[in-house]
Amino acid sequence: MNLNFEAMKEMQQELQEKYKDKWSPISPACAREKLLWMMIEAGEMADVIKKDGDEQIMNDKQVREHFIEEMCDTLMYLNDVMLCYRIEPEELEAKYLQKHQRNMKRW
Hints:
- By secondary structure, the protein is mostly helical.
- It is about 80% helix and about 0% strand.
- The termini are far apart.
């Protein structure tokens, strides 16, 4: 499987469907909650950096896997936010490319 924004969206939709009786529904009204959870997961990534350090992330397999897992949690919540606002992968990709081009001309 090629993992891209479209595939991540489909995977998040699959998770949302599976746990629809346990999780908040995907809607603009719950996007704030999803964004807050995303920030918590990003904080957990920062905790790994703080507690274990850069060298451990680069060289210790277990620490690296933990860091990447927290990164995946963060991306999953980002995808939930996208689902809440019906942001399509093509929209994100186009804006990402525009932003990259703008950043390449900044300094």
